[in-house]
Design brief:
The protein starts with a helix and ends with a helix. With 67 residues, it is mainly α. It is elongated and about 55 Å long. Helices cover 90% and strands 0% of the residues. It has two helices and no strands.
């Protein structure tokens, strides 16, 4: 997440984004009295990976159509 944000926001902005993300996760855990669920994180990461693959496949198809 940090590397993705660093490319968009720069190093300072990425640190702030990561800190915010951690703070939100912590707040949700404390207010809902739920432990951190690693499975949810892994599912989300898998969805992001699939989206990225689909994006690049689509981009490749468009580039092949131009050639």
């Amino acid at each position: 997440y940090y590397r993705r944000m660093k490319s968009k926001l720069g190093p300072k902005g990425a640190k702030c984004a990561v800190a915010r993300k951690i703070a939100i996760i912590y707040y949700q855990m404390v207010t809902k009295q739920e432990p951190f669920n690693l499975e949810i994180l892994q599912r989300q990461q898998q969805k992001n990976k699939e989206k990225r693959i689909a994006f690049y496949k689509n981009k490749l198809a468009k580039l092949e159509g131009l050639a």
